[in-house]
Write a structure and sequence with these properties.
The chain is of the alpha/beta class and 387 residues long. The strands form 2 sheets. It has a 7-stranded mixed sheet with strand order 1-7-6-5-4-2-3, with helices on both faces. Strands 8-9-12-11-10 form a 5-stranded mixed sheet, covered by helices on one side. The longest helix is centred in the last third of the chain and has 20 residues. The chain is globular and about 75 Å long. Bound molecules: pyridoxal-5'-phosphate. The site of pyridoxal-5'-phosphate has 17 residues, from helix 3 and helix 4.
Length: 387
């Protein structure tokens, strides 16, 4: 029988490898087909032939399978896939109505920051930006601003700050704020924000969940499927229509099959590179929560298990020019934005975000892939030797 993954006691790696629930009981197929139909017929009495098949903006067998798998990984009750990570961010943001307040962690993913600034301004929503890594001051901001939604990113991109999810959630509850965590840089295998008191967890599935840099997607998972926030988000996905395409859902489910292996390798490579770079004479500082020298290492170690993610930032000794020189000399690391793919990427965020962002000119963000560690080390070493 096809296995019900929701009640399964199997480990996440096993559920992932099986694509979230065994073979198709009708055909025995080990992998699911791509459902291409957008609409489904009714019988002579005008009853749907299959009650869960009406129109594919509402639902789709492959979305459901993928969503159930992700909900299980997150220890959540329900998930919804979106057409991109930003479509997922937007659906969550829209739970706040004009006149409401959003408290946003400062210095996080630039797309989220830009979107929320514009969205709040256009819709008469107050936006407060504050450093969530400082629990006491962030807690004060929650108490003073009484937000409807608190948005944090753990670990944050590109500064790799680590917010205390449990600590923040305890301050959200008394004011009735919904706590949403973007855990894209961690993956559900190493960080489960819902277990730490968050209400919602969001991922850009474009990144490590798919892992092959070949689709755009987003996903939100809830701790409580009957909450007002989730009722709204579920309805918004269907009505606003930012649904994932079936081909993308199929690719995502295929990518997820190897998530366990990829995360293990990427996280091990990242930690080894962070340790190597930390003592490198051309490096001023490495920002990576797996390092004992990281400000929030103990907190990260308590919140995460099985690794610290594949994202890190490094500050090279020198200025913007030295950083750009080093980046130009890399051969294995590809110069491109994004993260979480099997291939290692490097980015000079200052060039993208500009001076007003406050990003240091000598900062490089690395997304570490699954390549041989020796090749990654040698590539960084030769590029840094040139500056
Ligand atoms: C990429 C990213 C997003 C946005 O996701 P898209 O799939 O590009 O729309 C949001 N948050 C984080 C942390 C990201 O890295």
């Amino acid at each position: 029988m096809a296995q019900d993954t929701r009640n399964s006691r199997l480990h996440p790696e096993t559920l992932l490898a099986h694509g979230g629930g065994g073979f198709d009981p009708a055909t025995g197929a080990v992998t699911p087909p791509v459902p291409t139909a957008t609409t489904f017929v009714r019988d002579e009495a005008y009853e749907l032939i299959s009650p869960s098949h009406l129109y594919s903006r509402d639902d789709n067998t492959l979305f459901r399978k993928t969503e159930d798998l992700i909900a299980t990984l997150e220890n959540g009750q329900e998930s919804r896939l979106f057409a991109s990570g930003m479509a997922a961010v937007a659906a969550v943001a829209r739970i706040v109505k004009p006149g409401g307040t959003i408290l946003l962690q400062s210095g996080i993913y630039w797309g989220t920051t830009l979107f929320l600034r514009k969205h709040c301004e256009r819709n008469g929503i107050a936006l407060v930006e504050s450093d969530a890594a400082d629990l006491q001051s962030f807690a004060d901001d929650i108490t003073v601003s009484q937000p409807d939604l608190v948005w944090i990113e753990v670990p944050s991109n590109p500064y790799l700050k680590v917010a205390d999810i449990r600590g923040i959630s305890e301050h959200c509850k008394p004011v009735g704020a919904v706590l949403a965590v973007d855990a894209t840089a961690a993956t559900p295998l190493v960080l489960k924000p819902l277990d730490l008191g968050a209400d919602l967890v969001m991922h850009s599935a474009t990144k490590a969940l798919n892992g092959h840099s070949d689709l755009l997607g987003g996903v939100v998972t809830t701790r409580d499927k009957d909450s007002d926030a989730w009722t709204f988000i579920r309805e918004e996905r269907k009505l606003a229509g930012a649904v994932m395409g079936s081909f993308e859902a199929w690719l995502l489910l295929r990518g997820l099959r190897t998530l366990g292996l990829r995360v293990e390798r990427m996280n091990a490579n990242a930690l080894a590179l962070a340790e190597f770079l930390e003592t490198h004479p051309k490096i001023e500082k490495v920002l990576y929560p797996g390092l004992a020298s990281h400000k929030a290492h103990t907190l990260a170690a308590g919140q995460m298990s099985g690794g610290y993610g594949s994202l890190m930032s490094i500050l090279v000794k020198g200025s913007k020019e030295e950083a750009l020189k080093a980046v130009g000399d890399l051969n294995v690391f590809q110069r491109a934005t994004s993260l979480g793919g099997v291939e290692s990427l490097v980015e000079h965020r200052y060039t993208i975000e500009g001076e007003e962002s406050g990003i240091p000119g000598n900062m490089l963000r690395l997304s570490v892939g699954i390549e041989h560690l020796g090749d990654l080390k040698a590539d960084l070493d030769q590029a840094l030797a040139e500056i």
